[in-house]
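Justification of resources, computational component.

The compute hours requested in this renewal are based largely on the per-chain cost of generating structure records like the one below. Each record pairs the submitted sequence with a full structure-token output. That output is archived, and it is also reused by downstream analysis tasks.
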Amino acid sequence: MNLPTLPGDEAKGLPPAEGEQRPLLAKVAVSLALLTFLIFLPVVEYEFINYDDDVFVTNNPMVAPGFTWEGIKWAFTSAEIDYWRPLSWLSHMLDIELAGAMAGFHHLSSLLIHLGAVVFCFLAFQRLSGEIWPSAVGAALFAWHPLHVESVAWIGERKDVLCGLFWFYTIWAYAGYAKRPSAPGFLATFFGFVLAVMSKPMGVTLPCVLMLLDFWPLQRICFPAPSEWRVTGLVRFARTWWPFIREKIPLMAVVVVICVSTVYSQHRVGTMSSLTGLPWDARLQSALYGYGMYLTQLFLPTHLCVLYPHLGSSVQTMVWLPPAAFLVTFTIFVLCWASRIPLLLTGWFWFLGVLMPVIGIVQVGEQAHADRYTYLPLTGLFVILVWGLREVARRWGKSGVLPWITGATLIVSALVTRAQLPHWQNSTTLFRRAVEVTANNATALNNYGSDLVARGFIRESIPYLMESLRLHPAQQPLFNLSWVYAQLGQPKLSLGFVHEAFRMDPKGNTANEQIRVLLRELPEHPSDPLRRQSLATAYSLRGDYPKAVDYMRAAAELAPKDPDIQVDLAVYLGQAGKEIEATQTLQSLLRNYPTNLTARNNLGALLSKQGRLTEALEHLKAVVEQQPKNPNARHNLAILLTKLGQPQQARDEFERVLEQQPDYRPAMQHLAWLLAAKAAVRDGNRAKALALQLLQRTPKPDSSLLDIAAAACAAAGDFEGARSLVTAALAAAEKKPASVVQSLLSRQTLYQANQAYSE
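The structure output for this chain reads:
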């Protein structure tokens, strides 16, 4: 476009931004920075929060020490936490070097970077358009909009403000290059873009934004009018665009590398939902809903919080259909009027395109949408509002009211932002706000409960953690509840939650982090058996039985008079193959605590396994007599009766177990085999019903269960089913010992001859 010039500019050979307007530019830039600083100043008194700040900074072993060669290497070569973003890691390390773990300084750094982004936003639009005051208003909206509080006030989102700084620097450099193309100008643009994507991969959309700026306000390219939307016309326009596309190929090469590495790293750390996690239609509907929410919050930024829970696969039609209709209608309008009102196309597609990587088509994280995702995309809508409304006011002859509308908008925006800031003071205020303004927010409930625990409100945290667990059974609330009950002096409940948490995913990231925490705390609590019991539970569920035994021994030494620890030690000894020592441990325990029925039950099971059947029978009968509704003891007795050659009595005991607890899986499995393989009590139909019930409940049945089901089908006369199941059992037993495979082959021969198997 032909930019306006001031008198004397031609003689100086300088554009307005570098001539007489330079003093005014400086004054406006300083004023914007100062006002923004004053609005956001309270953040310097805020704390770290228990959501990413700990993972990214305070508890990150590569960041927390400050600058180290190992940490710098990690920043440039690793994406193990979320994705490759070395510049943001280095900025956190610099803060640690300068001020340690003083949260206020980290907040101040983020605020100063935001000020830099605001100034470059202003300078970039002034250089693009040649106009100071519309550029200042656009930059002020970017600086003060309430949706941007999250990016500035959240230390863990340093990547947002850092990316924003280099994003607008790149646009500023590109505006200079576009007006006076040169190798240094392009290198400055390329350098800024690389720094932006090194801060946050969301910067990959910047080359497309530069193409939009080529259209408006730079007018390097034009868009065809609807009358020219023919193949020949579009081809002609594409040819005129090609030189400007070609100049951005180096930028696009960086985009490809960053996109591939980001997708790979997000999959590795588990924050990216798989393409089968949610169906395509649900993700598309969620994305449309997200666009609608961002547009709504642009004008009505109310009920803002750190986390909006995802709607899952049950997105209601009336939630996504209105925004979908608006998006389609307005996009068609923008395309039809692009040749007459070019700023609409630039602003609208800036908004749509920059949001695309985080809109949820490929779901990353658990949020439905997030305020921080608007940090860069909303600028496109600010372009439409500022320059578009100015043109409307001019055409309607209402330019005089525009300053009043602009001033009122900026004042309201600043006031709402200032009102939103206190929610970010600490984890308590942050997640209390999320709990208040959202429903079914499991993560907010868990984090609020966790922070209550950290602040000493132990009992008050329980309802929030329990509700989080009810909404979404996950490891973190289970671990939090375990420590709640540990501090309340209820170790059995604590260990129960620990066991359930590690059982859920014993080798996942959350479990690994919990083990690191427990190990780090051991030297600080040398006389605490509970932490050692928790570690024993963790290693047992991971299959590392020797370590489980070591930690349980340590717990037993610290609490030699605790019978529960002795019982658990015997269990872990048995798992580690030390059955004789486990037996001796239980026998010693029973001499001191003869009424401990758990120890007696476990001892009976161990003796039965060792072939000491008479001794085992004595213990198990004693337990069943005193605890007739103990399914585990009755199940152990039934197994023992089978070994003693009393199948009918064994069947009776198994049936009693299932009467008391119909879904007791071990009893179902043993009874199905007994009724299928023992001729004296054979009941094929009952065996088949039990086996098929087990198969329905098991997503990936192992060879043992398939073998039982095959025997049950054969006992019921269903030899075709038996042959199919034993074939599947053989396939599943590929890595089993040769003796197991041989047994399956021998039974397969029987089923092929239409014969049932008998032990």
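The longest helix spans residues 103-129. The CA atoms of residues 208 and 265 lie 24 Å apart.
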